[in-house]
Amino acid sequence: MSDRSWSTAERVARESRGRLVAVLAKKIGDIHAAEDALAEAFAKALTVWPEKGVPDHPEAWLLTVAQRGFIDGRRAANIAEANEEHLKQLLEEQGERSVGSSGQGHDADTASPVNSSEDSRIALLFVCAHPSIDEHIRAPLMLQTVLGVNADAMAPLWLSKATTMSQRLVRAKNKISANAIPFVVPAPHERAERLGAVIDAVYAALTIGGEGLQLALEAEYLAALLASAFPDEPEVLGLFALCLFRLAIGNDESVGPIAERDVSVWDNTRITRAEVVLKRAAQRRAPGRFQLEAAIQSAHIIGCLEQRPVHREVVALYRRLIHFAPTLGAHCGLSAALVETGDLNAAKDILEALGERAETYQPYWVVRAKLAEVSDNRTLVLSSLTRARTLTSDPHSLAFIDRWIERAAAG
Predict the structure, then answer these.
(1) Which DSSP letter does residue 251 get?
(2) What are phi and psi of 29, to 5 degrees?
(3) Which residues of 298-331 are buried (b: 16+ CB within 10 A; e: fewer)?
(4) How much is the pLDDT for 76?
(5) What pLDDT was estimated at residue 65?
(6) Dist. CA 225–CA 297, nearest whole Å
(7) Alpha helix (H) ranges present in 29-116?
């Protein structure tokens, strides 16, 4: 196999899988079938491309071959005549040349680039957020089907085992197929109850660890699509602003607190755009979690750029955030901000109140280490950092913790 064939397939799988699954699932009406068809197309590509060369439009080639493979598979299963007619229509809509039942010709490359992928991805997000789907699996389902995040990466975020997460995802996909949930963006009165789950999924893509910059960029892109589709939804705007802020300063919290980062490398264009979007959201006068998350990022960034303390402002924002979303992250963020203001007793009380539910939450141990450091308790600093180290596999986070441990050990 040529290096170029392998690297192209790997790049497309990383960057375009979600878009391709979305387009296929919307046409086929079955997420499982779309994923299987695309997997077969990738397998065929690794056989065909080394021999005949990588096509000019790999994504279009894969989409065409996946559709053809699905159609041929259904024909082989002796589907009903009515369904056969529907499947023929799929090919007509694509307007591609025949590539033969094996899909091993480069005529597939003459197909047009993937069209309406943005609409398909938004539709698939709302399908995964359907009320019939267990609310606890909606966000992971969106992450896997639309962004290609695997169960192993998602499980820690939902405090679950990877095997359990995989089983629940399979059941959810089967329910979508069994209930014939339409792959469309729902009407406004139905959309409202699903939008929250869609926002949660994009936010999770932004914050999930160990997936690299590409996933964060995909989250920003999806947030931009949602903001364009629903410009009057303040929480959608808040999410988009948050994505812009995170990408502007580097979406890797493992490199340390914002105040310790190099502002000279920040993306000022993204920061300016984020401020505009956040202001537009605030004008709706309907505050919510993601607007407040974005406001916290804004306060930190402005404090760094203007070289002034904003800790008390951040504390106030975190208290409001907890009113809307009393998450582990919000509580740990408030505790960290209180440490910066010098209110160590309040910071300690918050951490202690979290109890056992924070035992496997890595940021909890990082904040605990910070509190111990300010309290001059080196033993607790080292034990907390050692625990934090066991709760991440991200190399950047491990490097940051190791540097901290080295400093603490040296006194």
Answers:
(1) S
(2) 85, 20
(3) bbbbebbeeeeebbebbbebbebbbebeeeeebb
(4) 59
(5) 86
(6) 21
(7) 31-52, 58-76, 81-94
pLDDT of residue 96: 41
Q: Show the tokens assigned to 35.
A: 């994923």
Cα–Cα distances (Å) from 168 to 214, 325, 334, in that order, read: 26, 25, 33
Q: Which tokens is 340 given?
A: 């910066």
Residue 108 is predicted with a pLDDT of 43
pTM, to two decimals: 0.76
User: What phi-psi label fits residue 257: left (phi over 0), alpha (psi between -120 and 50 degrees) or beta?
Assistant: beta
Looking at residue 404, its amino acid is W
> Do residues 43 and 29 touch, judged by C-beta distance below 8 A?
no
Residue type, 89: Q
List CB contacts of 43: < 8 A, sequence separation 6 or more: none
Q: DSSP for 305-328?
A: HHT---HHHHHHHHHHHHHH---H
Question: 86, 45 in Cβ contact below 8 A?
Answer: no
Give the tokens for residue 151: 């169960």
Q: What is the pLDDT of residue 103?
A: 39
Burial of 31 (0-12, 13-18, 19+ CB in 10 A): buried
What CA–CA distance (Å, rounded) separates 17 from 15? 6
Round to whole Å and give the CA distance between 328 and 237. 23
Q: What is the pLDDT of residue 253?
A: 57
Residue 209 CA to residue 202 CA, distance in Å, equals: 14
Integer Cα distance of 291 and 286 in angstroms? 9
Amino acid code (one letter) for 31: I
Chunk the chain into consecutive blocks of 10 residues (it has 411) and report each block's average pLDDT, rounded to whole numbers: 70 74 80 85 86 84 85 63 53 42 40 50 90 90 84 77 88 88 85 90 79 78 92 96 93 67 91 97 96 97 93 97 96 97 97 93 95 96 96 84 93 75
Helix (H, G, I), strand (E, B), or coil: what is residue 113?
A: coil
Structural contact between residues 127 and 176, judged by C-beta atoms closer than 8 angstroms: yes
Contact yes or no for 330/318 (Cβ under 8 A):
yes
Q: Which two tokens stand for residue 216?
A: 């964060």
Q: What DSSP designation does 358 have?
A: G
pLDDT computed for residue 380 by the predictor: 97
Side chain identity, residue 221: Y
DSSP at 357: G
